[in-house]
Amino acid sequence: MAKVTSARLQTMRVDKDPVTMLTCTDASFAGMLDKAEVDMFLIGDSLGMVIQGDDSTLGVTMDDMVYHTRCVAKATSRGLIVGDLPFGSYQKSPEQAIENATELMAAGAQMVKLEGGVVMSDTVRFLVERGIPVCGHIGLTPQSVHALGGFKVQGKSEEAINDLIVAAKALEQSGASAIVLELVPNDVGRRVTDAINIPVIGIGAGPYCSGQVLNLYDMLDIYQGRKPKFVKNFMADSSSILDAVKAYVTEVKAGTFPGPEHCF
Ligand code: KIV
Q1: Ligand 1 atom closest to residue 180's alpha carbon, by position in its atom list
Q2: Which residues are within 8 A (CB) of 100 and not within 5 positions of it... i.e. 6 or more apart?
Q3: In this structure, what are the phi and psi dihedrals at residue 246, rounded to the nearest 5 degrees?
Q4: pTM of the model
Q5: Would you say the CB of residue 23 lies under 6 angstroms from ligand 1?
Q6: What is the DSSP letter of 239?
Q7: Ligand 1 centre and the CA of 178: distance in Å?
Q8: Sorting pLDDT into bands at 50, 70 and 90, what band is 227?
Q9: What digits encode the pLDDT tens for the residues 231-264?
Q10: Residue ID of nearest Cα to ligand 1 atom 1
Q11: CA distance 206 to 153
Q12: Residue 180 beta carbon below 6 angstroms from any ligand 1 atom
């Protein structure tokens, strides 16, 4: 099983081999995801909702992220480990971002993810030039849920779509290795993906992205809170968690997930 690296992600994009990503927060799940050959493991700050029971990601701390990153890193050999920088840990300055990104990398992350487009591009460049691979995150950015007025579909006007394309290009030019694009109509997913040359990993962003990501607790139907339309319950037709994760990988690679019922 060849290790997934930033360079490998780029090859996958060129080869049109869809990138599979799932959130992961502990060693048991990490071992299973590695067995199923999930390409990227995201220690997502959505753990604030699915593990800690909050109604947003805003209360997640660096200590939380370091703890869960360590747990995942111990049991992962193939998947690329991406650690989310939590709310308030990088927005102040590039210096603040590198201090916290360094902590996540020391805990076992191989890439960090942060939310925001043009406004974060200098910070992304600062991290990348100092040896820290970065994944951007645009569209619905959950850490800005209050500014956005809720978990709403983004990119609904031509101006908003152009802003997303400008944001994606700024992140690419700053050296980001990939971008997560969340909650936009299919056509916006396609336009953003076509506008740049790094992988765009969609969540509720339609089938035309370079890859897909879901929250593990959502797709296994463990999380009992409100589930967005873009989530598929992969446990429904599986007899084990491992089978459900394998079905996700198979469907993303085959282009059958997301289906029309998961799209906007
Ligand atoms: O924390 C998370 O689960 C995420 C996904 C929405 C990609 O950032």
Answers
A1: 7
A2: 62, 85, 89, 90
A3: -65, -40
A4: 0.98
A5: yes
A6: S
A7: 14
A8: confident
A9: 999 999 999 999 999 999 999 999 999 999 999 9
A10: 44
A11: 12
A12: yes
